[in-house]
Amino acid sequence: MSSLIEIVDGIHVLVAKIEDDLKVQVAEYNNVRSQLNAINRKQTGSLAVCDLANLVKPEDIISSEHLVVLLAVVPKHSQKEWLSSYETLATYVVKSSKKLHEDNEYAFYTVTLFGRVADNFKTTACERGFQIREFEYSPETQESRKQELDKLMLDQDTIRASLLQWCYTSYGEMNLEGISYG
Fold first, then answer.
1. Of 12, 59, 109, 111, which has the fewest CB atoms closer than 10 Å, so is most exposed?
2. Are strands 67-75 and 131-133 parallel, antiparallel or unpaired?
3. SS3 of residue 61 by DSSP
């Protein structure tokens, strides 16, 4: 017959091992959840921070040796100012601004200009309160983002199911351990 101290030590060792395993599994689950939440925030945030991949189509971007398309995030209350002044923010700006999207706070415009004045345009636009977002359209990037999102969602479901099964099993082990010493 085991002494009470040996029984308590045995239960304590088992509980500590289960607790350590639980911490590892919960950390893995939380890591995947935080990655998914970050992606969701990027997709649902305002135009100033959201992922542009869902808003910009290949035909919105002109890629040539001399011309570039910049993407401007304009506060809603400044849209008239943008439309009347974007051509004067730098030399050689083509009259081309097109609204792509609008949310509660911002409107999202494209503007076409010569590549050599792009930096000057960005600086002047920023001084006027317009944000120029960097974006390079790539179908491969679009596909890899979608695959990453699908993989994370699958991982989250798999890890959650595994964690729940582990909890049920560990709970049963703890009860059996307590009964066998009792």
1. 59
2. antiparallel
3. coil
Q: Two tokens at 43?
A: 């997709």
Q: Which amino acid is at 46?
A: S
What burial letters (b/e) apply to 81-113, b meaning 16+ CB within 10 Å?
Answer: ebeeebbebbeebeeebeebeeeeebbbbbbbb
* pLDDT score of 58 more than 60: yes
pLDDT by residue (tens digit) across 38-53? 888 777 777 777 777 7
pTM above 0.70, yes or no: no
Give, in degrees to the nearest 5, the angle at Cα 9 between 15 and 22.
10
Q: Is 61 exposed, middle or buried (0-12, 13-18, 19+ CB in 10 A)?
A: middle
Identify the bridge partners of residue 75 per DSSP, sorted by sequence position: 106
DSSP state of 101: E
Cα–Cα distance, 158 to 155 (Å, whole number): 5
Angle at 97 between CA 92 and CA 102, to 5 degrees: 150
Eight-state DSSP code of residue 93: B
Cβ neighbours of residue 71 closer than 8 Å, sequence gap 6 or more: 52, 56, 100, 108, 109, 110, 132, 133, 134, 135
